[in-house]
């Protein structure tokens, strides 16, 4: 079974168990899959990998948005904006990694290699 078939099976399996589509395949993962990048779904990644990936993406995009909308007008120094974005990314990454690891255990999911066999 190739990566696309496994992700399609996962989406249908978890949706039938009541898991929301955005939880199964967050936008960054869905985009990666459409681009042909075979990363495992978030439920199958380690805590550290999830924290880094999700926190990194969130910190960067949240920081850019906050800079464009608020901080630029408030003349917040770039260092302050960087620290705030870093803290937001770390907190978001830890919360999301905790959630996905908890959900994977609750659903009794095997490793990605063994899924669908």
What count of structural domains? 1
Termini, distance in Å? Answer: 9 Å
Using only C-alpha atoms, the radius of gyration works out to 17 Å
Strand content: under 5%
Which regions contain 5 or more consecutive residues with pLDDT less than 50?
none
**Overall mean pLDDT score?**
93
Helix content: 55-70%
Structure classification: mainly alpha
In short:
With 117 residues, the protein is an all-alpha fold.
Describe this structure in words.
The protein is mostly helical. The chain has one domain. Helices cover 69% and strands 0% of the residues. Helix 4 packs antiparallel against helix 5.
Helix and strand arrangement:
Elements: H1 3-16, H2 21-24, H3 27-34, H4 47-71, H5 78-107
Helix pairs in contact: 4-5
What are the salient characteristics of this protein?
0% strand, 117 residues, mainly alpha
């Amino acid at each position: 079974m190739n990566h696309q078939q496994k992700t399609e099976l996962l989406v249908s399996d978890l949706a039938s168990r009541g898991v929301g589509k955005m939880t199964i395949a967050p936008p960054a993962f869905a985009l990666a899959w459409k681009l042909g990048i075979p990363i495992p779904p978030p439920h199958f990644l380690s805590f550290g990998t999830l924290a880094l990936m999700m926190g990194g993406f969130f910190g960067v995009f949240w920081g850019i948005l906050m800079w464009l909308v608020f901080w630029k007008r408030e003349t917040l120094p770039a260092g302050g904006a960087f620290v705030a974005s870093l803290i937001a990314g770390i907190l978001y990454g830890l919360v999301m990694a905790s959630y996905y690891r908890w959900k994977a255990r609750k659903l009794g999911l095997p490793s990605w290699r063994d899924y669908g066999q």
